[in-house]
């Protein structure tokens, strides 16, 4: 992977850096956020301490995965970022669809292929003293998952072996263009511009699910998509409720 080639192939107007190895591209960009002058894509050929939601580890292989983070500055406070991980999911899904891959979305931050996890999204933020906030959007995308790594993960994961054969610079440029376009739309209109597109790809629409927090069941019901704020709509025996994003996991009932 070559930073100059990615930037040249993309139309996003975003600076690009590629490093051979790092612990976490998200952690690196958060540490540098105060000194950034504009959006920056940081790609790691090998990431040794990737993170997922709720402090979970993200395991990846340098040969079979793409691991990268995009730092993007937003004006206003954190409330304006409601639904951002879901909007990123829509951007990934639409980009992959343009490349011939149909995927589904799982609330709040997973991209699925045939029911298994294909990509994960982690958004972390850092406030700016003069106003606004930096959002660091970390993405791990499985392309060709080695059997030994899948065994280490402990559950089925999806892969895209035909995209693994695609030129990595061109693939990253396509992903960057899709993300940058979506983030600029999010700046103008918030998640409301993405809600219908997310619901169109909702992998568990109508399924009976449980909402868990720390292993404890908070709610049970039928998944009914998301609202314009990115909250999961759940039809329960007591009526429809809206579940806020946070340290909450969604699991198939009985799963």
UniProtKB/TrEMBL annotation:
Residues 1-187 form the BPL/LPL catalytic domain. Pfam families: BPL_C (PF02237), BPL_LplA_LipB (PF03099). It is an enzyme of class 6 (ligase). The keyword Ligase applies. Its EC number is 6.3.4.15. It catalyses: biotin + L-lysyl-[protein] + ATP = N(6)-biotinyl-L-lysyl-[protein] + AMP + diphosphate + H(+). Keywords: ATP-binding, Biotin, Ligase, Nucleotide-binding. It comes from the Bacteria. The keyword Ligase applies. GO terms for molecular function: biotin--[biotin carboxyl-carrier protein] ligase activity. This is biotin--[biotin carboxyl-carrier protein] ligase.
